[in-house]
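DM between two lab members

TW: hey, do you still have the YibE/F-like family protein entry open?
JB: yeah, one sec
JB: this one, 252 aa:
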Amino acid sequence: MWYLTLVLFIALVMVAGKRGVIIFSSLSGSFLLLLTLIMLIADEFNPLIVGIIFAILLVFLAIYPQTQNPQVRQSALVSTLLVLIGLFLLVLLLVPCTASQGFSLEDTEEIEQFVLSVGVSFPQIQMVVILLSSLGAVAEASIAVSSGIWEIIAYQPQISVHNLWQAGLEIGRKNIATALNTLLFGFFGSYLTLGLWLIQLHYSLVTIFNNGILVTAIVGLLLGILGVIAVVLITNCYILWYYQHHKLAADK
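TW: and the structure you got?
JB:
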């Protein structure tokens, strides 16, 4: 692992120079935040409270080092935090309905030697996991859309609101396609062995779609896709509002 980390650092420095060091520092900070989150939950802190706090910290850490433009940074940050709140509310509503928390039957062999009375809420941990798993794609999409729209404004300061909206949607469509591919490939790559297990052992469709691991993964995937679509629209709307507001102020 240390060798791969060193290779990653060298590759980032070779490609991005000083920016590579900043990106690597951001990744390291995110990793340390996740470790701290795990330790706090293990010490019986409320998973939802510490989860939402650390999710906000991870959003700041993902967005601030990625861009030097304050307008891009502000619009990406605001839109990502708004989507984060929306996803959190959806997770609170959906996860109890799925009843997929904890370990599934496929985990029995690995965990039967351990004590499961760990004193933490598995439904709340599942909510935190689903929320954090969608943050990366949402933050990436918000930065990409925000950067593209502000670049258009910089080169065409007199562009109409309608044309700017259409341009923002076009940028968003391209980023949605990229984000969907990323989420889908990650989903299939992570759960390929589980899929082979279920197929080779001739599980029925009812059993497959009631499998705790698979249901959690599907809910996380769908919420991630929904978050990417929502952040494209919210980023576009926020920048248009900001553009109109400051344009009117400048005209006065």
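TW: got it. The radius of gyration is 21 Å. The CA atoms of residues 103 and 110 lie 10 Å apart.
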